[in-house]
Amino acid sequence: MTLDLNKILQMVEEEKKYAEELEKLSESFKHPMLQGLIKGISLDSRKHSILYAAMASLLKETQPGLTEEELEIIRKGIEKHIEMEAEMVRLTGQWAEETDDPRLKLLLKAIHEDEIKHHKILVDIKDKLAKEETITEEDIWDAVWKDSPWHGSPGG
Question: For residue 137, with 0-12 CB atoms within 10 Å meaning exposed, 13-18 middle and 19 or more buried, which class applies?
């Protein structure tokens, strides 16, 4: 299935609008738990808008490859956050199990589910996506020598 670029661009705007509406709704009352949940959903809608925009960019434009140096920067930066997310998954799961307050349990479970998602996405970025987008020195030499019909000599 090919995704329609126009529909994706429409979703960018719809998610922005939805986020703004939820933000206004959360400001119309003072209950901190409900405000937090609704503002959290609003932030997710803003995130979705960003992700739809990234999808549109993938469909419209050639994406730059990552250098090996950039991959290493990403890997080092993400490794720290993977560890942090793993700890947050552990803590929020433990706290959600230990609390008897249903309000706190609801909020902790929402955070816990997000932490699980964040951890998985970071691991996927580190292990899969960044590697696929990386242009290595070997790739460059293969393009010049191995993959070229002239094997590095002037073609002509």
Answer: exposed
